[in-house]
Amino acid sequence: MEDKDILDIYKEGKKDYAFNLITRKYSERLYWHLRKLLNSHEDTNDILQDTLIKVWKNLPNYREDSKIYTWMYRIATNEAITFLKRQQLKNKLLFKKIDNENADDIIADPTFSGDKAQADLQVAINALPPKQRAVFSLRYFDEMKYDDMVEILGGTTGSLKASYHHAYNKVKDHLLKVTNYE
Description:
- This protein is an all-alpha fold.
- The chain has 2 domains: 1-97, RNA polymerase sigma factor, region 2, helix turn helix motif (Rna Polymerase Sigma Factor, Chain: A), CATH 1.10.1740; 100-182, Orthogonal Bundle (Arc Repressor Mutant, subunit A), CATH 1.10.10.10.
- The longest helix has 26 residues, at 68-93.
- The chain contains 9 helices and no strands.
- It starts with a helix and ends with a helix.
- The protein is 75% helix and 0% strand.
- The radius of gyration is 18 Å and the shape is elongated.
C-alpha cells in the first residue's frame, strides 16, 4: 500500500488502522537501521519503540513535505543519536569501558552472526561519534542518497559528504591497524 493511501485512511479517522499499516510497512527497515547504529538488540528494540511512540504522537502534525520513511528515519536517527550521547556521558561519568570496544566482545554477543572482519568493521563504526556513525551507516549500508540524508539528519549535502569522508577514513584507518597492513 502506498503512503498516500495510508495517509488517506488516517485522515478518514481510521487512525489506529493507518498507524498499524505504517508500523508494519516500516518497522523492519527502521529496526535494521537502528541496529547498525546501536548494535544491541535490546537497545534497538527500546529505541524502535520510542520512535514509534513519537511517530504516533506526531502523525497529526506530519506535513507531507517529505516521504514518510525519511520522516520516520529522521525520528529514529535522532532517537539513536540522543541515546548514544547519553550512553557516552554515562560511561564517562562512571569511568566505564564502552561495550563492544573490541571484536572479541562483538563475536561473543549471541545475536552477532558475522565473522572477524565484520566484527572489526563494527568496532571501527562504534568508535565514531554518534552523528558520523549515523552518516556512515546511512551511506555505506543503506546506500542512501545525500538528499535523503539531509531530510533525515539535517545539515547540508556538503557537510554530510564531509562527515562521511571523515568517518570513512577513520574506519579505514582502524581496519588497516587491526589487519596489520600498514
